[in-house]
Design goal:
Layout lengths: L15 H6 L2 E2 L8 E2 L10 E4 L2 E4 H10 L7 E4 L12 E4 L1 H10 L12 H12 L4 H8 L3 H8 L13
């Protein structure tokens, strides 16, 4: 019995280089190349490749610089999540990416509304005698949230290595 080769079902996969080229506005070497296609809730460009979702900056790395080792992040030196300029991207571990974020003062987590300076100010106001409720009114949050910040239940690392 002779085996019959199966034909691919559906549309052929568009090469990643073509998908990437269609999704951003190129600029100068020092400029951010903004992804204009679909973005996720965090502002990162999105595309798909080989039936899986892929962030656009990771696609840019793969197209321009090669494979990304397992467990490695593609980080932005420009801190612009929608940038796909390969000269603004570098590889790092999760710890290195977090350290880069911390050094640049981008300590927010997920949907946090506070910046490092806000946390320092909350703690300072509390030391000056302001109540959690009053600090919460100033920052538009609850007394419970302020208490957790002041007691370092959240935002633990702020102030540890600050001069």
């Amino acid at each position: 019995m002779t085996k019959v080769a199966k034909r691919p079902v559906g549309r052929p996969e568009i090469p990643l280089r073509e998908k990437l080229a269609a999704g951003f506005i190129p600029g100068g070497q020092k400029d951010c190349w903004e992804w204009v296609g679909k973005k996720d809730k965090d502002g990162y460009g999105c595309t798909n490749y080989k039936t899986r979702n892929l962030r656009a900056h990771r696609a840019a790395w793969m197209v321009n610089k090669g494979a990304i080792p397992k467990g490695i992040c593609v980080c932005h030196s420009c801190d612009n999540p929608s940038c796909v300029n390969p000269s603004h991207l570098f590889l790092g571990t999760v710890a290195e990416n977090n350290r880069d974020r911390d050094m640049k003062g981008r300590m927010g987590r997920g949907n946090s509304r506070f910046y490092k300076d806000d946390v320092i100010k909350m703690r300072s106001l509390h030391l000056e005698g302001e109540s959690y409720s009053e600090i919460g009114r100033i920052f538009g949050t609850s007394a419970t949230t302020v208490r957790r910040v002041v007691l370092k239940i959240t935002w633990k690392r702020v102030g540890q290595n600050d001069n």
